[in-house]
Design goal:
single chain, alpha+beta, 5-stranded mixed sheet, 20 helices, 43% helix
Length: 607
């Protein structure tokens, strides 16, 4: 690799604000940084007296540097975080939790629906959040269902109701699907939900009090009692969630470092309530300093695309940062309101910060304890299987009901435990129903036939099943084209199918591996096997439920919603459509001879 001529590069480098991207010999971005003065900042990497090991390692891999100028340092900060998110550079501190945050969605239907939402915002409506966890969203939805009778059911369920469901009987929905409530009354409840989710619960209580008094004066005592119960539930919930203090909106960031692991704990306070908390463990290059880690976390957490809604008016930090003013300005700019970052705390703020720091340290301790347990399990499993190392394990399982809706699962474990991003499901087709051996071969073909990256070849493959499944797997690998060959291990359940009585099979089932029922290595295998079983069953249930809820008519090309409704009405429902012959189908308005024959053949092929 030709050495990067930094002296020549620095001669032409601007002194304006901007972002720099350092590339290696393969043109891969290995570091992204920003600077108020690009020339001054980039020059600092090439000083002769650099003692930082991380910087020396970075500089030794630089082949080229790309520069993007910006008008201000704030613009540079925003661009830097977008590029870090895009390139995930090797030498940057990375916030690895890249899952989209959960929101509460209030849809834009005639009768809006309250729902849990995660992912892209394709559904029209209002999004409230984000929340720190899915559990926090579920808890909030359950509480609101008790207070505000706004529907939470799926649209498909809502559209086909002919009478109120159980939620109406429990007084947790006003049943707008069957006109048990007027549109005005329903929209008023929706407005209460909207105010509640934006932190205006006091306005909601005031409006409910006025409504209760008006109902009482009009001698509508049943309605007044109903509104009174709403008020009592709302106040009770406020009491349960309230914090002693006067801080309506604040994020408190705790930080801890222990045994090489860094933890950042975020405590979220909204509308005087603890919304939730969560600890993050960023991917940190060696020799990174706490200030650098915290600054990178704040930028990536708050300035990520779509993250504007999570920025609090006030953020309490555990220690001072050199770029605190730039961060504050950037947060204020993207949230379009003043955002203050504070490091000097007293009274209640200091107590919250102490709590956040304590949680960060505790989370590191728990994580390291868990990792130690995982390491012991891996060490014993390596010894048991006679392997030098285990970096990747995969396990396959098959799930079906009487041979129908067969789904195969593949779960992946690495040295850290389950690697959920690598999990895969396969809809098994083209086999005889109930043939688990053929289903296993189908799954292995799907998983490995187009494998290119040899780093993805597992060291061990567990097959959930006995000799038959293991033999079929060995047949597949008999023509394996790669140099690395995974070890195949069958996991056969004992006669009583109780945990601890499993038999481990190798060599086509001709050999068994003896293991004690309390052995840590067996516990690891049970974890992998149970995870593959859970993942396969979940996929099978989803497929089965989809089949149950999807009309057979929806599978026929050219049959839209209007024609489906016409067929069902004209012939008296799905049973009538199935019982009709081609001539009867042709009599339905809008159904041609060819279409009638197509419908008949499709329905009767389905049996």
């Amino acid at each position: 690799m030709a050495e990067f001529d930094h002296a020549h590069f620095l001669k032409t480098l601007s002194s304006e604000p901007g972002v720099y991207r350092m590339l290696d010999s393969d043109d891969k971005v290995i570091y992204v940084g920003k600077a108020k003065n690009l020339k001054k900042r980039v020059s600092s990497y090439f000083r002769s007296n650099v003692t930082d090991g991380k910087t020396r390692a970075l500089v030794s891999n630089i082949s080229d540097i790309d520069i993007t100028l910006t008008n201000t340092e704030t613009e540079a900060l925003l661009l830097e975080n977008n590029l870090i998110k895009k390139y995930q550079p090797r030498y940057n501190i990375l916030l690895r939790d890249d899952k989209s945050y959960p929101y509460i969605l209030l849809t834009a239907h005639k009768h809006p629906r309250l729902a849990f939402h995660r992912g892209s915002r394709k559904v029209k409506g209002e999004y409230f959040g984000p929340f720190p966890s899915a559990g926090a969203v579920s808890e909030s939805l359950q509480l609101m269902q008790k207070i505000f009778p706004v529907r939470q059911c799926e649209d498909a369920y809502y559209r086909v109701r002919s009478r109120p469901c159980l939620q109406f009987q429990l007084k947790r929905c006003s049943a707008p699907c069957v006109n048990e409530v007027s549109d005005d009354e329903y929209n008023q409840q929706v407005d209460f939900v909207r105010k509640f989710l934006t932190g205006k619960s006091h306005e909601v209580i005031a409006a409910l009090i006025s409504k209760m008094e008006a109902a009482s004066h009009a001698l509508q005592f049943e309605l007044a009692a109903k509104v009174r119960d709403q008020i009592m539930l709302l106040r009770k919930m406020q009491e349960q969630q309230s914090i002693s203090g006067n801080y309506a909106e604040m994020d408190v960031v705790g930080f801890a470092h222990l045994n090489g692991l860094n933890g950042i704990h975020l405590l979220m306070i909204r509308d005087h309530k603890v919304l939730g908390s969560k600890t993050y463990f960023p991917k940190v290059p060696k020799d990174s300093q706490p200030q650098e880690i915290l600054a990178s976390f704040l930028g990536q957490y708050y300035l990520a695309p779509g993250a504007t809604g999570r920025i609090a008016k006030e953020v309490i930090l555990p220690f001072a940062l050199d770029e605190i003013d730039v961060l504050s300005e950037a947060l204020s700019q993207v949230s379009e309101r003043k955002v203050t970052l504070k490091t000097v705390t007293r009274g209640e703020r200091a107590q919250y910060l102490q709590l956040a720091n304590k949680n960060a340290l505790n989370s590191i301790t728990v994580k390291q304890s868990t990792q130690d347990s995982i390491n012991k399990r891996y060490a014993q499993l390596k010894a048991t299987l006679g392997l030098d190392d285990i970096n990747r394990m995969e396990c396959f399982d098959i799930s079906h009901t009487m041979g129908e809706n067969t789904v195969a699962s593949c779960v992946v474990f690495d040295s850290q435990g389950p690697n959920n991003k690598e999990y895969r499901r396969f809809n098994v087709t083209g086999i005889t129903g109930g043939d688990d051996y053929a289903a296993m071969e189908f799954a292995l073909n799907k998983r490995y036939n187009k494998l290119v990256d040899e780093d993805k070849i597992p060291d061990v493959i567990f097959i959930d099943g006995g000799k038959g499944q293991l033999s079929r797997a060995e047949q597949y690998f008999s023509n394996w084209p790669h140099a690395k060959m995974p070890l195949l291990v069958g996991v056969a359940k004992g006669t009583s199918r109780r945990p601890g009585l499993e038999t481990l099979l190798i060599d086509g089932g001709r050999k068994t591996i003896p293991m004690d029922s309390d052995a840590p290595a067996l516990h690891l295998i049970q974890h992998i096997r149970d995870e593959s079983h859970r993942f396969a069953i979940a996929g099978h249930r989803n497929k089965r439920q989809k089949q149950r809820t999807q009309s057979l008519l929806e599978e026929i090309g050219g049959i839209g919603s209007v024609r489906r409704q016409t067929l069902l009405k004209f012939l008296g429902g799905m049973q009538g459509v199935k019982a009709a012959n081609i001539d009867q189908l042709k009599q339905v308005p809008g159904i041609s001879s060819d279409m009638a024959e197509k419908i008949f053949n499709h329905l009767h092929d389905k049996g």
